[in-house]
Automatic annotation (TrEMBL):
Its EC number is 1.8.1.4. Its cofactor is FAD; (R)-lipoate. The active site is at 446 (proton acceptor). One of its GO terms (molecular function) is dihydrolipoyl dehydrogenase (NADH) activity. The active site is a redox-active disulfide bond. The chain holds residues 106 to 573 of 579 of the full protein. It catalyses: N(6)-[(R)-dihydrolipoyl]-L-lysyl-[protein] + NAD(+) = N(6)-[(R)-lipoyl]-L-lysyl-[protein] + NADH + H(+). Belongs to the class-I pyridine nucleotide-disulfide oxidoreductase family. Keywords: Disulfide bond, FAD, Flavoprotein, Lipoyl, NAD, Nucleotide-binding, Oxidoreductase, Redox-active center. Disulfide bonds join 45-50. The gene is lpdA. It comes from the Bacteria. Signal peptide: none annotated. This is Dihydrolipoyl dehydrogenase.
């Protein structure tokens, strides 16, 4: 039947996946309704993810660089931190982007419906908003409901001193002692921010390395640097209890030998992963299958088991990254408009915007070893890069992995300042099927960090002559 509103394409969720899909579908001539529960468009990424974290990381970088210039003959006074002004600046960056999205939606005649959407049938969503309920009927639908932070049963999440990433980005204060529970990308980025602002940071991680998934040798320079700056890094340790006390949060740790210790912190950031929002949208009413974790399975055209319903972004699986959501959003919108597109990216880069940054794309050595994939490597230590020495930050490493059969580049891992920007070149190289000679013979500007990619290829080729 017809809903209160009808659209050819309805997009559920306005994060990077959802707004990209909505805008692309509209550009291709479809009438589009975009449903979002929050008052601002942009989803996690713009409001409480990628963007506010990068604004704060920029501030952190300026603070720590100013501190470290002392060793090179330039000393600044201790920074005066006006936390309210910093928070306002972060919010202004977010508002500029989310406000921009509203304008872009209007310009394309995308109708935004505010409220929580749930399926009531294969062609109908009910939206529960501030002004009551509204039904939206559709010919095709793109689910872009995203994800939310994982909570743990033994943690008093209702205590305001226990934060998730959203709470940490609110920047309520600068806690004296902060525990980061979970040494993954999001936890370590926030650790970096609070360390620069003056917190004494402890990181606890269950696995035997920070940033599990990334190669150990690549994580090492980051580990070394933060170990020197932070109060403590605990590996192979789990948190078994958190007790809210008046003087702080009493945390119990258990190491891999079963020994327990406890310590008290002013705040705890729980960053142990994200879970997809698929279980909340009553997808069953539309016949769309959601697995027990909340993920929705899709084919290479982003189609769910129901042929006119698509899904994209965090809700369809790992890696939960904005650039993956955006790419999938374009694929889904174009398929909705009748184009024959598939998600056929060979690789999706991952970046931790810590200091130093850590990035990887395609095959890692960890994965190659686990799967028995043959590879050869070219490794360039940044201590031999003129630019990284000039920056006073020579701890980086650029590592390229090659297919031994044809010398094509199949993966890269980079640690160092700006590693996130550097990885894009290798992503392109892999998409283009470039080999070691292609990377080694491409003239890179000197002196830049981009040369480290060029040099790593030359290390593999054995053609490097001078290390500068
Ligand atoms: P989301 O951005 O999660 O958006 C989903 C939207 O749907 C939300 O607005 C939600 O309110 C809405 N919604 C959900 N259910 C309903 C419903 N039933 N009805 C109405 N609306 C609904 N990724 C990167 O690539 N780079 C980074 O630097 C980066 N940094 C991050 C930092 C932090 C602190 C966090 C938490 C995440 C970060 N990410 C980063 C991950 C990135 O934010 C996500 O991968 C991305 O936002 C996923 O986009 P999405 O479109 O799938 O969904």
């Amino acid at each position: 039947g017809a809903g209160d509103i009808h659209a050819e394409v309805v997009v559920l969720g306005s994060g990077p996946g959802g707004y990209t899909a909505a805008f692309r579908a509209a550009d291709l001539g479809k009438s589009v309704v975009l449903i979002e529960k929050d008052s601002n468009l942009g989803g996690v990424c713009l409001n409480v993810g990628c963007i506010p974290s990068k604004a704060l990381l920029h501030a952190a970088k300026v603070i720590s660089e100013a501190e470290e210039m002392g060793a090179h003959g330039i000393s600044f006074a201790k920074p005066k931190i006006d936390i309210d002004a910093l928070r306002d600046w972060k919010s202004s960056v977010v508002n500029q982007l989310t406000g921009g999205l509203s304008g872009l939606a209007k310009g394309r005649k995308v109708t935004v419906v505010t409220g929580f959407g749930t399926f009531t049938g294969p062609n109908m969503i009910e939206v529960d908003g501030a002004e009551g309920e509204k039904t939206v009927s559709f010919d095709q639908c793109i689910i872009a409901a995203g994800s939310e932070p994982v909570t743990l049963p033994f943690i008093p999440h209702d205590d305001p001193r226990v934060m998730d990433s959203t709470g940490a980005l609110e920047l309520a204060d600068v806690p004296k002692r902060l525990l980061i529970l979970g040494g993954g990308i999001i936890g370590l980025e926030m650790a970096c921010v609070y360390d620069a602002l003056g917190s004494k940071v402890t990181v606890v991680e269950f696995m035997d390395q920070l940033m599990p998934g990334a190669d150990k040798d690549i994580v090492k320079p980051l580990h070394k640097r933060i170990e020197a700056r932070y109060e403590k890094i605990m590996l192979k340790t789990k948190v078994t209890a958190i007790e809210a006390q008046k003087k702080g949060l009493k945390v119990t740790f258990e190491d891999d030998k079963g020994e327990t210790t406890s310590d008290t912190f002013d705040r705890v950031l729980v960053s142990v992963g994200r879970r997809p929002n698929g279980a909340r949208i009553n997808a069953a009413a539309a016949g769309v299958a959601v697995d027990e974790r909340g993920f929705i399975a899709v084919d290479s055209q982003q189609r769910t088991g129901v042929s006119h319903i698509f899904a994209i972004g965090d809700v369809v699986g790992q890696p939960m990254l904005a650039h993956k959501a955006v790419h999938e959003g374009k694929v889904a919108a174009e398929v909705c408009a009748g184009n024959n597109r598939h998600f056929d990216a060979r690789v999706i880069p991952s970046v931790a915007y810590t200091d130093p940054e850590v990035s990887w794309v395609g095959l890692t050595e960890t994965e190659a070893k686990a799967k028995g994939i043959k590879y050869e490597k070219g490794v360039f230590p940044w201590a031999a890069s003129g630019r990284s020495l000039s920056n006073g930050r020579s701890e980086g490493i650029t590592k390229l992995l090659f297919d031994p059969e044809d010398d094509r580049v199949i993966g890269a891992s980079i640690v160092g300042t700006n590693a996130g920007d550097l990885i894009a070149e290798v992503a392109l190289a892999i998409e283009m099927g470039a080999d070691a000679v292609d990377l080694g013979h491409t003239i890179h500007p000197h002196p830049t960090l981009s040369e480290t990619v060029n040099f790593a290829a030359e290390m593999f080729e054995g053609t490097i002559t001078d290390l500068i």
